[in-house]
Write a structure and sequence with these properties.
single chain, 208 residues, alpha/beta, Arc Repressor Mutant, subunit A, 6-stranded parallel beta sheet, elongated, CheY-like_superfamily, phosphoprotein, Tscrpt_reg_LuxR_C
Length: 208
């Protein structure tokens, strides 16, 4: 085991962040190098520090933690990310996995299990603690899952908004109609929508 793991906590609830600092301060192998309230503060800190782990709240004012996690894992995959949340439901866990997180810890978790879970993540295992009420459904940022879309899927949405058929879109992008239809199905699945009409409304509401 390395000498210590450098940790950044990203949470806009100061009491919780301070509590997490106290939990980790008791351990010789953890060093909290910063607390951030949002993504802007985090990226500023990342310009000067290289953490091994980021403890990231899922929902903060002005910051979608799931989207932030997705971006972090794309640009800095070497950094472990554990999502922390007051929400306990299976859809939170599933969306956490989709965002590329290495773990999920409910804020109600006791200190001993928090430390155990963090160590397991740092040793290379993904740890998603089972929610107390797994069937509970949680609305994450109004159901916005746009961060899961690929660049090509976003292109497809633009053509859908313009009224292009699958065939016309395929001709514009020089790809097969089958590929376009597959993208359309994947887009609806990712965004949890049921029709192109719903997709068009969603696209305008979320500036896609």
């Amino acid at each position: 085991m390395k000498e210590n793991y450098k940790v950044i906590i990203v949470d806009d609830h100061q009491l919780f962040a301070d509590g997490m600092v106290r939990i980790l301060a008791d351990e010789d192998d953890f060093e909290v190098i910063g607390i951030c309230n949002n993504s802007t503060e985090l990226y500023h800190m990342l310009n000067n520090h290289k953490p091994d782990l980021i403890m990231l709240d899922i929902q903060m004012g002005g910051t979608n933690g799931l989207e932030l996690c997705y971006d972090l894992k794309k640009t800095m995959p070497q950094i472990k990310v554990i999502l922390i949340s007051m929400f306990e439901s299976i859809n939170v866990v599933n969306e956490g996995k989709n965002s590329g997180a290495n773990g999920y810890i409910p804020k109600t978790t006791d200190a001993a299990l928090v430390k155990k879970s963090i160590r397991e993540v740092m040793e290379g295992r993904d740890i998603f603690i089972k929610p107390i009420n797994p069937e509970t459904k949680v609305d994450l940022e109004g159901g916005s899952y746009a961060f899961l879309l690929s660049k090509r899927e976003r292109e497809i949405i633009l053509y859908i908004k313009k009224g292009f058929t699958s065939k016309a879109t395929a001709e514009e992008l020089n790809i097969s109609q089958f590929t376009v239809d597959t993208h359309r199905k994947n887009i609806l699945k990712k965004l949890k929508l049921n029709s192109l009409k719903e997709l068009i409304s969603y696209a305008y509401e979320n500036n896609l």
